[in-house]
Amino acid sequence: MIAMGNYSVSIKSLYVVTIVILFGALTIGALFVAEDTGISRLGAVYIERSQEISNISNAVFGVYGMYRFYDTLFELLIFSTAVLGITIFSDLEPSPGSASRGLVESHVVSASASFLYPVIAVFGMYLAFSAHLGPGGGFAGGVIGGTGILLLALAKGAEETARKFREDSMKQLEYIVLFLALSVAILGALYPIKVYQDILGTGVITLVNISIAMKVFIGTWAILHFFVKHRGEV
Amino acid sequence: MSTGLLASAISIIIVCIGVLGLILKRNLLMKLLSLNIVNTATILFFVLIVYSPGDRAPIDPSPGLQYADPLPQALVLTSIVINFGVLALSLLFTMVLVKRYHTLDLIKIEGFVKREFEEEKS
Amino acid sequence: MLILFSLLLLGLSVAVLLQRRLLNAVILLGVFSLVSSVIYFWIGAPDVAVTEGAIGVAFVTFIYVLALSDQGKLHVIAEEVPPFLFQEKGELQGAELEILSGFAEEINLELEVEFVGHQELTSLIGGRRADVIAGAYFPGYLAGDGLTNTKGYNEGQLAKIHRTAGGEGDIGILAETDLSELTEIGEEDLSRFSSLDEMVRAYNEGRISGFISDSGRMSTALYRVNTPLRDKSEISTLGEVKYGFAVSAEEGELLDSLNNYLTDLARSGGLDELLSGHFR
Question: Against a cut of 0.80, is the pTM above it?
Answer without folding.
Answer: no
